[in-house]
């Protein structure tokens, strides 16, 4: 056992001390920081400053003033503030983040600087002339002509209500167009209500119902329900499993190929048996995978702690994540080591890797239907087919309708049997493949080696 | 007699190729065996089977009294023919790693330095393996093979790639290990090396054992009963030698004559007669080389 641990420790150190690994660990951390700081700035989501002229042609004489009021800088600022607060409330962070330092940055980003709009009125017969102005760039820049229909406020003889037409210059920002449309619609509604002798504020009050958040009641207490969190959690767990297993499996593959191609294998075999070597290598890279898993999980947990949402994650899920990591890693790692031992260079490993990679992608392809219908027949069947079972079961466990416990433990037992079989299979290929050079084997040859070993 | 290695009817095939065919071998403790034969004779395959790196299709083998070398690896030193190192690892760290794998306790930095000094590599422990030349790395790998002071030392083509100075150093090291009490078996396709070091020869040809005998008796048994003669005076007429009683025939190669003796002739008497007939600058009994013996056996 001590020799196995010596091999495992060397492999672990040799992997985690490489620049490539350090970068691989740091990239997600830096990406996480970038997502919350740099990325929004780079994306420039800031609402553009509206600066220019809007001509309003209002034959009703009842709408233009409303448009003017709607597009006043203070009014626009107030609407954006309200919109921002609503958006913040609907995020996973909820109201808890509205007072943080990030919220101020976000608020400034969304609010942008106050706009400066020069609204002028014109006559209906000057429409063509005003439209021509939109093609000229000299002088005060006009970005639109808003034409209110004559029957926009009061129905015509046929009893029909009109609306408005909006003419804009080329490449006008869609958000500005939206602002003008909203202004026109709001002003027309306001005029219609007034024309009908009604009170706009009273109607607004009567037609608005607040939308309170639902409350999730758990043994630990009550907390606001986060439906989006319920969707993110399964993907987060499956992603953690995928990253840790595939990364460590890939390291196992490449280090095995390196040791074989550099002829170090036979030197090692002078001191240990092939099975000890295989076990040591698998354990070493398992530690690498666990390190990745712990690092990434810690980021997630710290995020939850900072949002006061840690209570929404059942600690048993982390235990299941650990168990399924071990099972999936041993299964895939064994196969990776077997492939690594049978080829001479990474390029030759690709054809043998393709079926394994494809197998691993299946739960991803069906992750959405599995997490949405966690107890469907498909989800249940995939939960017992290794090596996909771990991903499927994690998606189900973290969904809003977890599977019965007997299914979870049956899936674990199936996984353990699969891991043991993969290890047996790999040890036989490993024993023969280690010293085989020359033409890379195909699957038929690998099976032949298994029988021969 | 306790045996270090015992093979009985061992056979190994790769596809349709029979690499080792029904090989029997008994190697006593403390012996120094040379495993010789041309490329593809089955030497490396046999050594790998002894090391339990490959496994025979048929036959039995024991190593240091165990049914598998795996059970005795800490008592065995092995220098494979295809040898590599972790290129990015420091030399000292690599040796200490191998020592731990071989179960050597307290293989300290001082012991590492001492071993390196012994093979004229003092001070390289902090260099990465990739910084060393192939020849120097070979000496590092040799240390890996002997650092556990093995009871059985298996060396597969240990001299390949070494310059004459390092060949001598390696030969001295092998002999020192033998004097320490290690049983040694080494393979080579350069038969002169085996003649210089070994006291017992195992010769393989196409997977089959064609010779298994101690070196002296091999040479004696295959003694062609011939003399090598070089006259004192260059150009001297040596035709008179053909008329001597014990001489069968004379063959000239430049200024040197090979004198084949008749069956039953006494070499000492023949040498006296030759020396009396033509004064010699050189006169000696011709010893057959392993190469001669091998060619004689397989042709």
In short:
The complex is a heterodimer of chains A (453) and B (299). Chain A is built from 19 helices and six strands.
Word description of this protein:
The complex is a heterodimer of chains A (about 450) and B (about 300). Chain A is an alpha/beta fold and about 450 residues long. Chain A is built from 19 helices and six strands. Chain A folds into two domains: about 1-30 and about 225-450, no CATH class; about 50-70 and about 115-205, Periplasmic binding protein-like II (D-Maltodextrin-Binding Protein, domain 2). In chain A, a hairpin with a 2-residue loop joins strand 5 and strand 6. The longest helix of chain A is centred in the middle third of the chain and has 35 residues, at about 225-260. Residues about 90-100 of chain A have low confidence and may be disordered. Chain B is α/β, with parallel strands linked by helices. Chain B has two domains: about 5-220, Rossmann fold (3-Layer(aba) Sandwich); about 225-290, Alpha-Beta Plaits, CATH 3.30.70.980. In chain B, the strands form three sheets. Chain B has a six-stranded mixed sheet, with helices on both faces. A four-stranded antiparallel sheet of chain B has the order 11-12-10-13, with helices on one face. The longest helix of chain B has 17 residues, at about 165-180. Chain B is globular, with a radius of gyration of 23 Å. The model of chain B has no long low-confidence stretch (mean pLDDT about 85). The interface of A and B includes residues 3, 14 and 266 of A.
